[in-house]
Each structure stands twice: as C-alpha cells, then as structure tokens.
Predict the structure.
Amino acid sequence: MADLDTFRRETRAWLEANCPPEMRQPMTSEEDTFWGGRNAKFSSEPQRIWFERMRDKGWTVPHWPREYGGGGLDGEEAKIVRQEMAAIGARAPITSFGISMLGPALLKYGTDEQKREHLPKITAGLIRWCQGYSEPNAGSDLASLQTRAESNGDDYIINGQKIWTSYANYADWIFCLVRTDPTAKKHDGISFILFDMTSKGVTTKPILLISGRSPFCETFFDNVRVPKANVLGTVNRGWDVAKYLLQHERAMISGMGERGGSRPLGQVAADSVGSDGQGRLDDALLRAEIATFDVDEAALAAAAERMVDLAKAGQGHPAFSSAMKYYGTELNKRRHELLMSSGGIDALEWESERSHEGARPRAWLRTKANSIEGGTSEVMLGIVAKRILDLPGA
Amino acid sequence: MPLLLTEEQSMLRDSARGLISDHAPVAHLRKLRDTRDATGFSRELWATFAEMGFAGLLVPEEHGGSGLGAVEAGVVMEEIGRTLMPSPFFATAVLSVSALTRAGSAAQKSEVLPKIASGALLAALALDEGAKHRPLHTALQAVRSGNGFKLSGAKAMVVDGHVADLLIVAARSAGAPGERDGLTLFLVDPKAKGVAIERTIMVDAHNAARVTLDNVEVTADHVLGDVDGGAGVLSGVLDLGRGAVASEMVGLSEEVFGRTVAYLKERKQFGKAIGEFQALQHRAAHLYIEIEITRAAVLKALQTLDADPAGATAAVAVAKARAGATATRAVQEGVQMHGGMGMTDQFDIGFFMKRARLCEELLGDANFHAAQLAQMRGY
C-alpha cells in the first residue's frame, strides 16, 4: 500500500512535469487524435512531445511487458496511471487499434516471433492497424464470412471483400478473418491472419456516412498473397481469437460512455440554454434528463473500474464486456442526443466556422453507429442472455 | 483500492447470509405481517445479531463494537435486502450509531454505544416531516428554555420509532425551514412527557412511526453535537444511511432478478420455456446489466464513505439514485414476468415490490439525488 502511494506521488509528479498544458484540454476535433502509423503526422508540437515522452516511458501501453515497449506495470499501478491522467484531463497519447484490439490477442495467441515482430511497433506507434471482420453478408452473423484463403505452398491466396473496415485507407496492416476450410462448419473453418495493406491486390474505398465523413471503408482482396506464418493462433481456430479480441473491442467501445475530465454536460447546456436565478439550468426537464444521465455515467465508470478489477482477480465473466458494450454505447448515444438538445438551433450548423464545420452534429450522427459496430445492442443482449443468464434456446 | 470485497468482507457476507437465510427468509416477514406482531421484528434474532457482532458493527472498539465501516454495513444491508428481513440494524446500528459516534460527547457515547452493541438498546432517527425527504426543511421547533430547550413538532416515517428506547430528533433551533444553519440534534427519551408515538405499519409490512412532540423538555446534556450545527453531522449520517439503503436495494434487486430468471426457465407456454422468447431474454439481459452497474456504483460509494467521508456525497447520490431506479425496474419486471402469479399475495415477489417502493423514498428518492448531483456540478 505504501509502495502504491509512492508510485502515485511519482506518477503525479511525472505527469505534471511532462504533460504539456495543451494536451490537458478536451479534444475538439478529429485532428486532436494521434493514430500513429507509417504516414503519421502530428497536428501540433505539444502532441508530438506528449506522445514521444509517453512512448519513451513505456506508457503508451503501461501494462504491457517492457520487452515490447510497454511499461511493465501491474494492474494496480496501471490503474493509478489512468486515474492520475484522468485527474489532470490528460489526453491519450495515441489512439490505436493495435493497442486496444490486436495487442491483447497477440499477447495471448502470438508466437514469440510474432510478438517480437509486431508489439514493439504498436507501442511505438509505427504501424497503424485496421480490422477486417465484417463482410456485406456477414454482419451480426459474423461467422458466416466468405472471404477465402486458399493454400498455395507456404502462402495463402486471399480473395473476397470486407466492409466497415475502420480507417482501412490509412492503415498499414490489417488483422483479418478468412475462411481457410470451406467444408467445415461455419465457426470451424475460419483463420485469423495478419498482412500488410500495401500487399498487391488490396484496395480500399471509403464509405460516406450520414455524418458526412468516412471513418469506414470497403476493402477488397484480389489474389493477395500472404505467408502462412502470418496466421495468429491455430489454422481453422480463428474464431477463438476473434471472440477474444471482440471482448477487448467491446470493452474499449463501452469506454465511449465515459468522458472523464471534460466539462459537465449540464454546464455545456447552460451555455446555450441559460440558468435561472439559483444557477439551475433554465429548462427543468432538460436538467432532469442531464442529471439522470450524469448518474448513469458515473455508475458506468464505476462498473468499468470493477470489470477490470474483477478480471485481475480472476473473477470476471468473459462475456461481461458485452454487457458493458451495450450500456456504454447506449449511454453515449444519450449523451449526444442531450448535446444536440442543449445546443438547440446552434447545434444544427453543418458548414460554418463557428460550429467548427459542424463538429457537434457530425459527432452526434457518428454515435449512432456505436450500438451497431462491434456487435449490435441486440446481439449483446443475446450474448448476455445466453452466456451469463443461461436462458434456454438463446 | 480494487472495487471488490476484501476477503474479510466476503467472509462477513457469508456469515450474514447464512444467518439471515436460515432464520429470516421472506416467510419470516410474512409471518410477522400475518400475525400482526406487536414488535414487527424478532427480538430473539436481534439478540443473535448482537452476539455475532452485527449490532455493534460500526460501534468503535473502545465502546464494545467492531469499529468497522460503510462497506461492512453495506454487506449486511445487502443480505437483509435479499430476504426483506425486518431488523433494527438500519435505524439503530447504522443511523443512530453513526450520529452518536460523529457528534456524541464522551459521556453520551459511553452511555449509549455499549448498550447498542450488546443489543440492549434500540434507537431511531426522527427526521422527515413532510411527504418527501427534505432534511433542511426541518421545522420541528427547539425553543430555549432555562439551560435546555422545549421541542414541539411532528415527525413521520421514523423507522422503528414504535420500539425505540432512544430518539434522535432533528430540530430547528434557529433560522427558517430550508436553511442549512440552525439545525440541532437532540437525544429524546420516548417516554418523556409530551412525546406521542403512533406506530404506522407501512406498505411493506415494516415498521415506522409518527412521533409528535408537544413542549418536550430537554436539558443541554441532551444536545447531540453543536447547537445550530446539526446539518453537518446529519449530512454525514444520512450519506452513510443512503449507502446502506442502496445496498439493501442491490440485494433486493438481485434476489428478485434471480427468482425471475429461474421462473423464465421453468414456466412453459406455447410448448416451451418462456425464457426462450427473445422479447423476454432481452429485457432480462438489460435488467442484469442495470443491476451489475448499480452494484459497482454502490460499492464505489461505500468505499468512498470509508476513505473520504466528507467527499462522498456525489458518489452516494449516484449510488442511491441508481439503486432506486434499478430496484424499481427489477420489481416491475419481476411482477410482469411472473405473470398472474406475480400479482398473488401467495407469491413472494409482491413483498419485494412493496419494500423497493419504501426504500426508494427512504432518505431521498432517485429524483432527489439526481438533483443533488446537478447542483454539485453547477447546473
């Protein structure tokens, strides 16, 4: 306990000395997120400094082993780093699917060689990853995917199409689900494979969304040659890896419902709606809705903390991330409905300087995907019913 | 600190659960109700509670208790919530002990606390006056008289007020209802001249009382804490009490949910278990998620109450608001999913619905606590 207190003091002092003030401000635009990768550019000098300091400290991923560029911290220490970062409103130094999704699967299923090859480039932000899961005919029923990988000597030849591939057009590598045995039952013929997006035969096409932006792509594979050594885990057991990764993806998405450090929603609302003589939001029903939202948001933060603690203690349920994904995404949609309601007509401006080119309505529309991507809310409830509640026929 | 029970706390939970499920299942409450029991709880069981150290759970060790904290109180309350056991634990061992420990003089503490720990003395907090919980609106008058005060006014929903050996009465000694300053707490003998107590059996068959004070004379020795400074003491006591009630509601919600899921698996219609229908599966899954999130919020509040009592108000508001909303959903879904059986008195599920409604009002409902949070956050 005393050691942890010391660690907390040291962490606080280090963050205080090393986190630039600009990196303690809430993010306001997409440029504020640093994604890493071969073509990465920093949008500002403080962003570069902050990333490099955290990288050198091993704190882009504090709880990964040091040999892979992590911080080598145990669970309690990593929690302290998160808490102390939240306390000063420090931004994440990097946002990375390599860290939040692929990394945990690599650590669990990767060979030593695969871990040595990929993990250090993830912690150092050198390679940006994308996820090749969904296909036009394999959405909620993901295991019915049809992209084929045919054996050809030491390689696979991959043909097919993925869809909703987040930022595929910016990614350097992809982790991808492919069918390696078309004769097996649908869950049993899938492999999890990694390859370079610059491989011959890979093309991407951004999809324009209702937000007016294109965070997702269609991704096409036309006779893409990939070494068999790039399979993660066992051939034809890729579904196990896929599910394991989804637990981490869902836990990450559920975090969208938490916004530590940013201004309370009620105060944001007061900017547009105004306050009465006692300092209360001048719209009693909106105030009530926001207050109820705040209660649920704080409760979700506690649940997220508890989920991590339960997992560390070996008491977690593997399907619980589905529960959190459901709640976190529904909550985030509520947040953005309330932001729109709070902003009134000001929040409707789509192209204007004042609105930062429609940041608020575009973000609002983007959140509608939260309860679809990574497994729909309905699929999440089905998983909870079947795997946690053990209800029949689910 | 991990947001989990420690090993010792888990052991406490197991022993509380063993005792309560053996001796006070829901049938215990049913029997007390049906026999119109004059006490409304089992004194024998309270003696056992005291022997096991539960009555003195929060009493400091130097006064004969275990000196434990909010998390431990919550653990016991949660088990009480599972079987709806009527028990003086909340009013005596949580609220009253907290008030005495925080504000009591050395003499008051050594006089009362050992008796509570041994199970010999029951106490009750007389606070609410109107239909809704509004502590600062306390209007019961304390008028100076000689070296003491005369108390006049009326209190409602005084939990265990009909059996209490000691009343802790919140009164207004200065200022106007609504103001924070000017509240004073008094220790009042329920047998004193001018005290009238009417037992009010509540919707959930638990006990409360209306207490009327008509020029009740108390001396300066009966003041608990500082004159006019009662609000500070009260807010600490109430936060702990709210954490305790929230814990009871978590236990209640989980029990209702467990019974409901079991029923979904067992009840057959259209040739299959009704739990096979997706319409019910999704509602059950949603309820499960609400309960788990609320459990985390409540444990967070209890841990905060132990680590930083003065800074716990926001966490407690979140916990009580969540617990109220979750329990309300749990009992409504419970009755609905039990179908017609859920409406019968023979089935226990209705007892949970009634208790949840009472717990929701106790020490502030979900709206009260959400509004508290809004105020703390400046909107």
